[in-house]
Automatic annotation (TrEMBL):
Name under which the protein is recorded: SDR family oxidoreductase
CDD domains named among the record's database cross-references: mannonate_red_SDR_c (cd08935)
Annotated organism of origin: Flagellimonas abyssi
Coiled coil: none
Lineage of the organism: Bacteria, Pseudomonadati, Bacteroidota, Flavobacteriia, Flavobacteriales
NCBIfam families per the UniProt record, alphabetical: PRK08277.1 (NF006132)
Family that this chain belongs to: Belongs to the short-chain dehydrogenases/reductases (SDR) family.
Family annotation (InterPro entries): NAD(P)-bd_dom_sf (IPR036291), Sc_DH/Rdtase_CS (IPR020904), SDR_fam (IPR002347)
Keywords: Oxidoreductase
Amino acid sequence: MDNPKYKDLKGKVVAITGGGGILCSTLAHAFAGQGAKVCVMDLNMESAQTVADMINKSGNSAMAVKVDVLDRESLEDAKKRITENFGPCDILINGAGGNHPLGTTSDPYLLKEDLKKTAKDFKTFFDLDMEGIQFVFNLNFIGTLLPTQVFSKDMVGRKGCSVLNISSMNAFTPLTKIPAYSGAKAAVSNFTQWLAVHFSKVDIRVNALAPGFFLTDQNRSLLTEPEGGLTARGATIIDQTPMGRFGEPEDLVGTSLWLCSDQSKFVTGIVVPIDGGFSAFSGV
Ligand code: NAD
């Protein structure tokens, strides 16, 4: 065990969707380091297995399960396997999520002349593809709601259980170009509050992180140039971030452990910005 600080997390069963991804694999390691039994769930079984293997190799406890957060049967199957192996889930982290190019406009602003542009890959609001928008809403919103339905039922009547959702900065103020992702994450924040109230009488706390800008494989080419340095969008983000840097996955760890431990036992329904001050800054 790394340096257990949250003693009540020891032995807890923590199921993490998107656990093979960049941010949530870091959370998987952090919870395992507190002595929790971590189930790394991901559509990409190879990455889930790699994370679980690393955790087990370090002397902590993890298992990997292939899961599609949009498929109830696969979630029920995962729950059965986790319960058999580790016991009922105490903490669910809904980390699977992401954007899709088909739900993204080419430019931040619509100009009159844009309507005359014929390039196939140039997209204004009018060209946004319903399939892309649906994909993003499903993955982020339904992909949070459905695993919660499946995993939190067994939390009812047990102490120390909680759900942690992953929202985004976009939920507070939408970023340009990505209306579907912004709307879907706003739905995740709203759902976090709704569910916190709904579950308040059965002792299940529900909170969320709203990460700012973290360099990951999905956004690296949008934010950084191949030969180093920032793209214009990357530079705008850094200019708007008072702390002057992108987030590191480790920046999410302290808040996540706190929100899922008894240290925050009277805290439910909050969405915590982890953004270097981005959401507090007016730009002036
Ligand atoms: P990532 O792509 O590294 O991780 C996402 C993981 O989800 C991947 O491993 C992927 O295989 C998995 N996944 C995708 N579809 C799935 C499905 N249907 N079922 C199960 N698993 C599925 O991305 P990340 O940057 O680590 O993002 C993690 C979460 O944080 C996401 O919800 C993302 O929207 C959110 N977020 C990221 C940032 C950022 O800057 N990276 C900022 C704010 C919020």
